[in-house]
Amino acid sequence: GRSCHSVMDATKGKGDQGMQNPGGQMERPVSFHFLESMLPKAVKRRVHALKRLQVQCANIEAKFYEEVHELERKYAALYQPLFEKRRDIVTGTVEPTDQECEWHSDREEEEELAEEVKEKAAIEDAKKEEATPEEDPKGIPEFWLTIFKSVDMLSDMLQEHDEPILKHLKDIQVKFSEPGQPMSFTLEFHFEPNGYFNNAVLTKVYKMKSEPDASEPFSFEGPEIIDCEGCQIDWHKGKDVTVKTIKKKQKHKGRGTVRTVTKQVPNDSFFNFFNPVKASPDGEMDEDSEFTLATDFEIGHFFRERIVPRAVLYFTGEALEDDESFEEEELEEGDEEEQDEEGDDDDDEGDFDPKV
Hints:
With 356 residues, the protein is an alpha+beta fold.
C-alpha cells in the first residue's frame, strides 16, 4: 500500500512509462503520420479540430496543477509545526513527554520477548552503572545520516569522508515557490555549527516547467523539473571534501631538475549535490551530463515526496519495505521483459542505478 502523498505523484505514472521505454513507438507497425495522411481531406480537417481541443485541454490541465501547487503550499504550512517538533526531538532540544512517546505496535509478542531481554540487560546495566555512570545519547543520534545510508539512491552519492559532516545535519525542509513566481521547490539542509563549513543552511532549488510546451503540447504530463541550482559552500580551510589535493612531480625540460607541485582535483562527495550540472537552455547536452541531471532531478523529487515527509520510516527502514513492495507491483504491471535483461538486480528507489 502506497499512499498517493501528492496528486503529482499519483499522476506522474502516466509520464513515467514514456521514460522507461524510449523506443516504444517503434513497435507500432504503421507510423501515425502515415495513417493521418491517408485520411480523406474532410476527415483530416476534423481531426485537426480535435487536436486544437486537445491543446485547450492541456492548458486547463496546467491550471489544475497550479492549484495543486497552491494546495501543497497550504498544507506545507500545516505540516510545518509537526516537522519542527520532529527536528527538536531529533536534535535533543526537546524531550518528548511519556504521553507523546506512547506507541502500540502490533508486534506485541516480539515486544514482550524484547522486554524480558531488556530486563535482564537492565539488571546487568545496574551493576555496570555502579561502576561507570553512562551518559544518555542526545536526541536521536545520526538520524539523517542513517537515512542516507539506508536509501540506495543516497548512499550511492555518500562517501566515507561525508559521514562525519552529515552527523551535523539537523533537518531537511522543503519550501514551495510563492504564487505568481515561476514554479519551483527548494530543499533546505540545516546544519548545526560544525568544523567543516560556515553555512547554517545549504540549499538546492528545483525549477519546474508547469505548462505545456508550445512546440509539443501533447507531451504535457504535469509539472516536471527542468533545472536546478545549488549554493556556494563556505568551507573552512582544508575541509572541502569535494576536492582532493594530489602531488605531481614535474621535470624541468632544460635543467632536468624535478619539483613537486600540488594540484587540486575534483573528489566524489555527496556535497557535489550543491554544485549541479547546468541544464543547457537549447537542450544540447552530452549523454553523461543528461544522465547526471536526470539522476539529480530524481533525487530531488525523492527528497521532496518521500524522505522529508516520512523521515522516521526511512530511519527505521519501514519505508524501504514499502518502496520495495511498490517497485515489485510496478514491475508486475508489465515490466517483466525488462527485468529479465537486468538479472535479479535488487535496486530500490528509482529505475536506474547511478553507479552503472
